[in-house]
Design a protein that fits this description.
Layout: H1 3-14, H2 23-35, E1 56-59, E2 62-67, E3 74-76, E4 89-91, E5 97-100, E6 114-116, E7 121-125, E8 138-140, E9 145-148, E10 162-164, E11 169-172, E12 192-194, E13 199-203, E14 217-219, E15 224-227, E16 241-243, E17 248-251, E18 265-267, E19 272-273, E20 288-290, E21 299-300, E22 313-315, E23 321-323, E24 337-339, E25 344-350, E26 361-363, E27 368-373, E28 382-384, H3 390-393, E29 425-426, E30 432-433, E31 436-442, H4 453-469, E32 474-484, E33 490-498, H5 506-517, E34 530-534, H6 554-588, E35 613-614, H7 617-623, E36 632-636, E37 639-645, E38 651-657, H8 665-675, E39 686-692, E40 695-700, H9 708-713, H10 722-741, E41 747-748, E42 757-759, E43 765-767, E44 774-775, E45 784-785, H11 797-802, E46 804-805, H12 807-823, H13 829-836, H14 862-872, H15 902-914
Parallel strand pairs: 2-4, 3-5, 4-6, 5-7, 6-8, 7-9, 8-10, 9-11, 10-12, 11-13, 12-14, 13-15, 14-16, 15-17, 16-18, 17-19, 18-20, 20-22, 21-23, 22-24, 23-25, 24-26, 25-27, 26-28, 35-39
Antiparallel strand pairs: 1-2, 29-30, 31-33, 31-34, 32-33, 36-37, 37-38, 38-40, 39-40, 41-44, 42-43, 45-46
Helix pairs in contact: 10-12, 10-15, 12-14
Length: 916
């Protein structure tokens, strides 16, 4: 009997005698199975780990994760759960029928890193034993019915990154340490305090904040807090969002709040604050300011309002402002909304001639304005002046209290709308399906005009990029009905459509829910932090198999058994025949490792290899000391990179994909094919590959200085001066230009980023990682229609919107890379664009420059470099008129048929920097 037949029989036998999960862990899961209703239907068998129970993650025989988001599970949390001593992740979010209290024994889960119970119906007090979870990083208990006080023991969670207890019924004071008990002031490494929408009372302790904290978000809105805002808040210089609105706070605003230079959103509205209007001149990144409904001393409109160049929204309702509204307030370049109603403003309203192009709403109702100078007033701006003296004698459109109406819904992606069954929904790609739905609630957006569709297009793109990056089974997403709720949160309805079939299976839903509940998806800072609340999903794909659950007669069982035995005998005979035929083919093709690749034939079959050498796994094991940990020089989603040494002494990096790698067979094949036939000094060289028994390994020429990302972050210890950065930009551009213009067929890289630019011993740039690159065949020179792939932040928005991949997609990513070279951070295109538009000395971009460049030296060609980068990241692919033409380097992009090639940018840079 051949070995393949033996393996087949062994697998049949193992289905009857499966390896057992740890006995105690199995007992706990069986207890949950008995306690809960609506458990996943695949919770069958005696081995949860071996039988792949849905939502159960294991390491060998031990259960390490339970992720059952949006499964419709009902019941209570059994105390038996705490026997799972190796459990690291517990996420039961979006199961609204899970109720009861958290057992005090939850503190026994000493290895727990994530406790996420968002959008359930748990109640009772949060047990003090939660402070024993010393490994906890995420604690999200928001959107439940928890009551009682915040346990002071939470302060002992020294590794906590995310604390979210919002939208409960918590009462009592904010706990701080007193030498005996712990408190939230001890959470110096925590980034997020989300305690909003509770019933917290008492004062905000002065001790709560300190200068050694790393907080970026502080949310205390919609509670019953009294007393003053502590001055220690101004010591937390890392803060970006501060919300204390809708409390009963009194006294003056601390003067040192002006020191919080990184804050972008500040809400202090709807309190009893008094004293002078705070001077916030130092908050030069402030985008959204709301001080409404407080009792500040009467004062003219402060002049510092007009210095906040990042301001999009100014809300000052009922704050005792008086005097004339200054016209220079309207010239803030990003201003969208100005609401100063119910004050004592007077005189004539004149918005001047240099008003913001983004201005949408000016609401000055119920003041004492006697006239409105409408010369040059834009028609698209909604002016509301009802309740002013000027409206008593004249009735015009500005005297009517009204507001713009708007809506948004994701556009179709190059397809014709179709009709679906009543219980299905058509996706943006015109496919009928059952989407996973819910509400994204953004707690502190930096913008106020909800009618700007570009915000939602960006949001769709970033969601899809995140889902793709995490290999979630998502085809498309749809957003609609953006609105503000009573707490000024931006709410957007979300629909997530399945990738292959019309329904999600339970695993797909659970993975998507987990990505949204544990903040795997990170939106841009313009949206601020979010919470996702899912709707119940009722259309799992296995629901079609309802017939399988019906009782089966003994006769049918016997018949099925006999039939199964006959089929098994036939399979064994057929298997023996197939084995001998296949073995013959293997012998004939033993020199071709790609015979075993599980590829779709339509994707190209066996790769076209030019010069890449085939290595054996045994050879590579010898070169890397059996792939020892000491030889690891890098890692990523694909697996690990090992340093190897050839018998000649030559060093080689060896990239070995893990079994669960994101890089599939097609990507492996693509990278070998492309790199074996492209040769350029600015493209990494492929020496060979290995594919034995499913092991996917690539061998490159050794690039000693690592990635550009490591150098910019300081990880490599290499300091890059300005000229070196220009040299790297030129090298990367030359490599990409070769791919676009001279490779046959041309190649679009699709993942241009600093991590994929390697530096040799002379710091020359080498473009690397071609796993998702796309050749452009001669019949489709203009574009390729393909599913969007790439790295969030670097992906061209137009590529996402249209699914049309062009060379312009690489140009956009290259522009983001240039800005990263400038700042050492990625990607901050928006901030650079805003600062550039100020048109001041050196574009006023000193604050963004990487300090290692050396600001005490002359930065030659800086303005030209920024110009080139910003042209690259234009979101529209329309033809550009020209790019900094000179007599020495006339570049006229009107002559090109598509977006300017990177080669054109190389020419401009060459003349700009190296031939002055």
């Amino acid at each position: 009997m051949g070995p393949r037949i033996q393996v087949f029989l062994l697998l049949v036998y193992m289905q009857c005698i499966a390896a057992k999960t740890d006995d105690e862990d199995l007992a706990v899961l069986n207890s949950l199975k008995d306690t809960w209703d609506n458990i996943p239907p695949r919770w069958v068998g005696s081995d949860p780990c071996g039988d792949n129970w849905e939502g159960i993650g294991c390491n060998n025989s031990r259960v390490i994760s339970i992720i059952l988001t949006s499964m419709g599970v009902a019941g209570t949390l059994s105390t038996d759960l705490t026997i799972l001593s190796e459990l690291q992740i517990l996420d039961l979010s979006y199961n609204e029928d899970l109720r009861g209290s958290l057992p005090s024994s939850i503190g026994d889960l000493k290895n727990l890193t994530s406790l996420i119970l968002v959008g359930c119906s748990f109640s009772g007090q949060i047990p003090d034993s939660i402070g024993s979870l010393q490994q906890l990083v995420f604690l999200s208990l928001n959107s439940n019915n928890f009551s009682g006080e915040i346990p002071p023991s939470i302060g002992r969670l020294s590794k906590l990154y995310w604390l979210d207890l919002a939208d409960n019924q918590l009462t009592g004071p904010i706990p701080v340490s007193d030498g005996i008990s712990s408190g939230l002031d001890m959470l110096v490494q925590t980034k997020h305090f989300h305690l909003e929408h509770n019933l917290l009372s008492g004062t905000i302790p002065n001790k709560l904040f300190s200068s050694n904290m790393e907080l970026i978000h502080v949310f205390f809105e919609d509670n019953k807090l009294t007393g003053i805002i502590p001055s220690t808040l101004g010591l937390v210089l890392t803060l970006r969002v501060v919300r204390f609105d809708r409390n009963i706070l009194s006294g003056s605003v601390p003067s040192n709040l002006d020191d919080l230079a990184r804050v972008k959103t500040l809400f202090l509205s709807n309190n009893n604050l008094t004293g002078l209007m705070p001077d916030l001149t130092g908050m030069n990144l402030l985008s959204y300011l709301d001080l409404s409904n407080n009792t500040f001393n009467a004062s003219d409109v402060p002049s510092w309002f007009s210095t906040l160049q990042s301001l999009t929204t100014l809300m000052m309702v009922n704050t005792q402002l008086q005097g004339v509204v200054p016209s220079d307030l309207f010239s803030l370049s990003r201003l969208q909304t100005l609401v100063l109603k119910s004050n004592q403003l007077n005189g004539t309203l004149d918005i001047g001639t240099s008003y913001s192009s983004q201005l949408e709403l000016v609401d000055l109702q119920n003041n004492f304005i006697i006239d409105f100078t409408e010369r040059g007033a834009p028609d698209n701006v909604d002016f509301i002046l009802a309740g002013n003296p000027m409206c008593r004698s004249e009735l015009n459109s500005s005297c009517m209290a009204r507001g713009k109406t708007f809506n948004y819904s994701t556009a179709l992606k190059n397809c014709q709308p179709i009709s679906c069954n009543s219980d299905q929904i058509s996706s943006p790609r015109c496919k009928c399906a059952y989407p996973y739905t819910g509400t994204l609630s953004f707690r502190a957006p930096t913008f106020s005009y909800l009618g700007n569709s570009s915000y939602y297009v960006y949001l769709e793109a970033s969601l899809m990029q995140s889902f793709d990056l995490n290999q979630l089974p998502v085809d498309s997403v749809s957003l609609h009905n953006p609105r503000k709720n009573s707490l000024e949160y931006l709410e957007v309805s979300l629909q997530v459509f399945p990738a292959s079939e019309e329904r999600f299976n339970r695993t797909g839903i659970s993975r998507i829910g987990f990505a949204l509940s544990n903040q795997t998806y990170k939106p841009s800072e313009i949206f601020g932090p979010y919470v996702f609340i899912a709707h119940p999903y009722q259309n799992f794909s296995e629901s079609n198999n309802s017939e399988s659950s019906k009782p089966t007669s003994i006769g049918i069982i016997i018949g099925a058994a006999v039939g199964g035995f006959v089929i098994l005998i036939l399979l064994l005979i057929a298997g023996a025949y197939v084995y001998h035929r296949k073995r013959s083919a293997e012998i004939a093709n033993q020199q071709n490792p790609f015979v075993h690749l599980e590829m779709n034939r339509s994707n190209g079959g066996i790769p076209d290899l030019k010069e890449a050498r085939r290595f054996s796994f045994q050879e590579l094991s010898e070169y890397t000391n059996n792939f020892s940990e000491a030889n690891i020089i890098g890692s990523g989603g694909y697996g690990k990179v090992y340093k190897g040494t050839l018998p000649t002494g030559q060093l080689i990096p060896i990239k070995r994909a893990e079994q669960e790698s994101a890089q599939g067979s097609l990507e492996f094949k693509t990278e070998i094919e492309l790199l074996s036939r492209v040769h350029h000094k600015n493209i990494v060289s492929l020496l060979g590959f290995c594919f034995e028994e499913g092991k996917q390994i690539l061998i490159y020429k050794y690039i000693p200085k690592g990635s550009l990302k490591d150098s910019l972050s300081g990880k490599s210890g290499i300091t890059l001066d300005w000229i070196t950065r220009l040299k790297i930009a030129l090298g990367a551009a030359r490599g990409l230009a070769y791919l676009h213009e001279f490779a046959n067929p041309p190649i679009i890289h699709r993942d241009v980023k600093s991590a994929n630019i390697l530096l040799d011993e002379r710091l020359n740039a080498k473009v690397a990682d071609f796993g998702i690159s796309k050749p452009v065949d001669n019949t489709r020179k203009s574009h390729i229609t393909t599913q969007v792939k790439g790295t969030p932040g670097y992906v061209d928005p137009e590529y996402y919107r249209t699914d049309l991949l062009t060379k312009k997609s690489d140009v956009y990513s290259f522009g983001v890379l240039m800005l990263e070279l400038l700042t050492g951070r990625a990607p901050i295109k928006r901030e650079i664009k805003v600062a550039k538009d100020k048109d001041k000395d050196l574009y006023n971009l000193y604050e963004f420059l990487d300090p290692t460049i050396g600001l005490d030296t002359t930065i030659e060609g800086f303005e030209k470099f920024v110009d080139v980068a910003m042209r690259c990241v234009e979101e529209s692919g329309e033809i550009l008129n020209h790019l900094c033409c000179t007599k020495e380097a006339p570049i006229n992009f009107n002559q090109t048929i598509e977006f300017p090639s990177i080669l054109g940018y190389v020419q401009v840079l060459m003349f700009s920097f190296f031939n002055p």
